Amino acid sequence: MSYGFVAPYTALVVAFGVLPALYAVFLAFTDNEGGFAGIANFTKVVSDFRFLPAVAHVALYLVIWLVALVVLVSFLAVVVHAVRVRWLSRTLRFVFYLPGALAGASSVLLWLFVLDPTASPVSGLLHMLGFSSFVQVIVPANLPPVFAIIAFWTGAGGWIVIMYGALNNISPDVIEAARIDGATVVQIARRIQLPMLRKWISYMGIMSLAAGTQLFVEPQLLSQASNAIVPNDYSLNQLAYQYAFQQNDFNGAAAISLLLLVIALALSAVFVTRGGLFEKD
Amino acid sequence: MTTVDVGRPAGRQDGVSGWSMRTIIGVVVAIFVLFFVIPIVWLLLATTKSAHALIIENPFQPGSIGDLAANWKQLFDFQDGAVTSWVGNSALYAVGALIITLVASIPAGYAMALTEFRFRRLLLVLTLIVMLIPNTALVLPIFLELNVVGLIGNPLSVILPMSFFPFGVYLTYIYFSTSVPRDLLAAARLDGCTEFQVFARVALPLAAPIVALVAFFSFVQNWNNFFLPFVMLPSSDGYPVQVGLTSLLASTPAFNPSSAGAQSVQLPTLALATVISVLPVLIVFLFAQRFLVAGMTAGGTKE
């Protein structure tokens, strides 16, 4: 009977988890006639002149985003937690969290407005930074921080709310004892609160790292909105998309997908085995 | 949410440096509040302005109902009402996948938590691993697979992959294994319930909170999904609204100068489209902050 309960889900796991992964492996190691190709597809995509720039773009974006995320989310969570006025604390959390509703294309579109000096609500700031047109804002060198800002704007709030919850789990007695011993607010944050958040911070870091390698919708929309000033092969996922749909090279697309999948799998495996968050069972 | 008040007013001994420190922190937090709030407020205001007013007026001066109506009309006249059908498609995909997700996930999480069967552990580990893979990572492989069976362009090519929601199974599993005692089920079995009755009459009624939670996450994720439908659905008729936004963007001369013409879209209209594209999720979000925390922290709160 248990099998009946898990049958539909198992079918979905096989159809949309296991099989596509296996099929991608098959395609990545064969040529377009189905013959075994060894690592030819991998050498082809890796030596593609667009591959290394795409890796560099994604890597730079990830570094900026993850550092900002870890530092700022920890800081804001601790500060919000220290706010004693209840309605203020609640309002702050709500304000941080709400942008999370705008994910994907909607948030990118919103930021296109914000970054366009002609219409932007912060056009003064943009002009001050020396930008007078949209095209100047989105020159390739600016894109990693731009994408990091968009991702931070949509994603940070949820994590702040979660860290806040984790901070609430720290016993008030511990904090009170530290305070009596003369610890300042900063010391309490550094010595007690941040170490206790470490597990959550690493969870956030790994989930964000895995998701960040998949960068697609942001550069895709920007490429469209900028008349291809932003190239349509800016990120790895876009490059895989180009292979599949512009060059009809499914084997090459599968090779890139597989590289990305291996990274995601490795990260999640490290997390499941070492993270300690899923100790149950 | 439990608010812990740790306290009496601290800082009497902090003196001047404590006070200035607090001011600095206050300013920094205020800057972040502006950072999070300004884009949303501005977006809502922008929908009430004419294209001209949007550019020359103060960004935070509200427009008029008349301009909102004009933007509304322009948006819904776009390509003979394409926006209406995109929103309809989004609803179809998101709700369709949501239903299949619930039908598949709740019993599976239940069985993995409270019954014994071969491969239980294998299925559990598999669930954990795929749950942590970003859902975009498998999109191209799934495309290649569905291409073989000829489903590309069919609504099922979006609904079925979205229905695969291991995170929902994991949440259900955690819920049943921590909050429903096995003894309760054993008692029901002794009373002569079949296995299905045990699930439907005893376990399921206890699971209302987790069903709501899984439904929330599934809906939000489905509605906001961009990459999957973008890849699977080549024709504009089948777009969900998230992908439809790209068509609108391509017709906005401000971002794509080559598009000026009869069908061109003005900036406030594009802003209105952005608002409409997130409205259902925004409404769900307004009421679900608690859900989000409960879901993300499930299983992780045991110290």
Automatic annotation (TrEMBL), chain A:
Main localization (coarse): membrane
Domain of life according to the entry: Bacteria
Keywords of the record: Cell membrane, Membrane, Transmembrane, Transmembrane helix, Transport
Residue ranges of the TM segments: 6-30, 51-82, 94-115, 145-167, 200-217, 253-272
Membrane topology: Multi-pass membrane protein
GO biological process: transmembrane transport
Domain ABC transmembrane type-1 span(s) in chain numbering: 56-271
CC per GO annotation: plasma membrane
Record PROSITE patterns: ABC_TM1 (PS50928)
Subcellular location: Cell membrane
Annotated InterPro entries: ABC_transporter_permease, MetI-like, MetI-like_sf
Similarity-based family: Belongs to the binding-protein-dependent transport system permease family.
Protein name: Sugar ABC transporter permease
Naturally occurring in which organism (per UniProt): Microbispora bryophytorum
Lineage: Bacteria, Bacillati, Actinomycetota, Actinomycetes, Streptosporangiales
